[in-house]
Specification:
Blueprint lengths: L7 H5 L68 E7 L15 H7 L4 E3 L8 E3 L2 E6 L5 E6 L19 H12 L8 H7 E8 L2 E6 L6 H5 L10 H5 L2 H4 L9 E7 L3 E6 L13 E7 L2 H9 L5 E2 L4 H10 L4 E15 L9 H10 L2 H7 L22 H7 L4 H10 L4 E7 L4 H14 L3 E7 L1 H9 L5 E7 L4 H5 L20 H11 L4 H17 L4 E13 L3 E2 L7 H6 L5 E2 L3
Parallel strand pairs: 1-10, 13-14
Antiparallel strand pairs: 2-3, 4-5, 5-7, 6-7, 8-9, 9-10, 11-16, 12-15, 12-16, 17-18
């Protein structure tokens, strides 16, 4: 069955005036996306349940649905600057391997075949380079029809302002699939994608090794599958890390590490009349305090509160703020390098899991809002483990943890963490909980850039791993696969178990939603039996505020769509 092209504006145009809305995933405010995560978004305040995508996930080949239409009451205005911020570092803009703050310009300046949200599949498909796609009856062959007018933006590198075509898609996929390139999407490509080709300039074909329930989510992931001009790929990673040449809605005009990035409209963009904004700026802040101060002093237009109390404080001080809250895919974790002692001892990893009081994290950091989670967050309702079972698999038992630490001969360990966001709060609580279990956890703070480089190279001893947000259950559990989250040992804990690998494959290859949920439950039980080296603290609740003059902020769940639809945002100022 074929998905026909239809823009988000045509399907779900809405007015922001007079309504409280969440800034799409708040991720537009930057919020420190790290590792593969993008910062979370909330539930729809018009209804739609508790944000879980698991039970309604369509199988490959199913027809995408569209959201109800509405008529905007204000005509968009051209011009204006939308300024956001985040804590951390930009980390470069290499299209296939950057993370952290680099996701913002990557997602806005490159193209994707389409953008799709597993977290809210009812919104259907937002097409970009592709105009339609279909899965053949075998559920392994995918065909994409491409538009002829996605034209490369003006640039200073001599790359022709030509339309992207199927050869660019193939070149992008070829680069992703080469293990030596260390790309973010290597794991699903190596595990599930068999081959791909370009039968003609406007047709691209992908064949998977077996049915894979998350093919569409992989293809639309902001840090996985941007479509990059083949000439720009040929320039090499050193060049593509510092600048962008693409055919997306925006062009990167400034990239100053530690300060900001700035983007302006691509005059060649295929969706004529968009983007509306004259520029988009994303500012970097050293910590949450300076980030919040920037918002309160009107330097930025959007902000991501850490918890409900902070959101309420901001709303009292500025009563016309647009606010929203709801389920999010966002959570923080503790990462252990089992290639270094003491983490090679499963007793130590088990002891850490038992010493963590997740309720304390929720009460202090979430101010009572949040949920204990296992390898898969509560937001994927069908795939997440039931709360009572989760409590048995990750019991709070400091006495039992103390005994295990003593048996392993561990009275002290060190761990690293970035000095960004609210990580200091996690450090304080974590250290206190480990002390209650008889060990001293020595925190070693690193600036965000240094931390990220060492984390990427798996050279840290152990670390707080901040702001994960994985847009499929499969991506979340890839932390426990041989080769780690990217499949090529970047960010890898070193954990490897063939039984776990097989269970991950089984779950991801199950197309029936109910059977797939059962497979993910079984997988998570198995992971806990193996004493994993990656442990989640709790699943957060999403909060965001934005100023009322920022119009047409994306009104749906899931980060993929939020970034892509910045082209529809406009500024309503006189």
């Amino acid at each position: 069955m074929t998905r026909d092209e239809k823009t988000y504006w045509e399907r779900t145009a809405t007015s922001r005036l007079g309504r409280r809305r969440l800034l799409g995933g708040a991720a537009l405010a930057g919020a420190g996306a790290a590792a593969f995560g993008l910062v979370g978004c909330g539930d729809d305040d018009d209804g739609g349940g508790n944000g879980g995508g698991g039970g309604t996930t369509p199988s490959p080949g199913a027809t995408g649905t569209t959201a109800p239409q509405a008529t905007p009451t204000l005509a968009p205005k051209k011009g204006g600057t939308y300024t956001t911020g985040f804590t951390g570092t930009i980390g470069g803009v290499a299209p296939f391997s950057s993370n952290y703050g680099g996701v913002y310009p990557i997602a806005l300046c490159y193209n994707y075949l389409f953008v799709y949200s597993l977290f809210n599949p009812g919104l259907g498909y937002v097409y970009d380079l592709a105009t339609k796609h279909k899965a053949e009856a075998d559920n392994v062959t995918w065909v994409f029809n491409l538009r002829p007018d996605a034209k490369i933006a003006p640039n200073k590198y001599g790359i022709a302002e030509r339309p992207l075509d199927a050869d660019d898609v193939k070149a992008s996929f070829d680069f992703i699939a080469d293990k030596a390139n260390g790309t973010n999407a290597y794991a699903p490509f190596a595990q599930y994608f068999e081959k791909w080709d370009a039968p003609d300039k406007q047709t691209f074909r992908l064949i998977t090794k077996k049915p894979y329930a998350f093919t569409e989510s992989v293809l639309s992931h902001n840090l996985y599958c941007p479509i990059v001009p083949k000439e720009w790929i040929a320039k090499g990673p050193a060049q593509t890390k510092t600048d962008i040449v693409g055919a997306g809605a925006f062009m990167l005009k400034e990239l100053t590490e530690g300060q900001q990035d700035r983007m302006e409209p691509n005059p060649n963009y295929w969706d004529k009349g968009r983007p509306y904004l004259a520029s988009v700026v994303s500012k970097v802040y050293a910590d949450q305090v300076t980030y919040r101060t920037a918002f309160q002093s009107q330097q930025i237009d959007a902000y991501v509160p850490q918890h409900k109390d902070e959101a309420q404080e901001l709303m009292k001080a500025e009563k016309d703020l647009i606010f929203r809250t709801g389920p999010t895919l966002n959570y923080n974790s503790f990462w252990m390098n089992i290639k270094q002692k003491p983490w090679d001892d499963p007793r130590v990893r088990r002891a850490v899991n038992m010493a963590i009081n997740r309720k304390e994290f929720i009460d202090i950091i979430g101010r009572g809002d949040g949920y204990p989670i296992g390898p898969i967050t509560y937001a994927f309702e069908a795939e997440a483990l039931p709360k009572d079972e989760l409590a048995k698999l990750q019991p709070f038992d400091p006495a039992g943890a103390k005994k295990l630490f003593q048996e392993a001969g561990v009275s002290e360990f060190k761990f690293q963490h970035p000095t960004a966001g609210n990580v200091a709060d996690y450090v304080t609580i974590f250290g206190r909980q480990m002390q209650a279990a008889g060990v001293t956890a020595k925190a070693e703070p690193l600036d965000a850039g240094t931390w990220y480089g060492q984390y990427q190279n798996s050279s840290l001893t152990a670390s707080l791993s901040l702001n994960q947000q994985y847009n499929t259950p499969d991506l979340a559990v890839t932390w426990y696969r041989t080769g780690g989250i990217t499949g090529n040992d970047r960010f890898s804990t070193g954990f490897s178990d063939p039984e776990v690998d097989a269970a991950i494959d089984k779950a991801a290859s199950t197309l029936d939603a109910k059977q797939r949920a059962t497979a993910y439950h079984d997988l998570q039980r198995l992971i806990y039996k193996k004493d994993p080296a990656f442990i989640n603290f709790f699943g957060a609740i999403g909060y965001a505020v934005t100023r009322p003059y920022v119009m047409n902020v994306p009104d749906y769940k899931a980060t993929n769509l939020n970034y892509h639809m910045v082209k529809d945002v406009w500024i309503n100022k006189a």
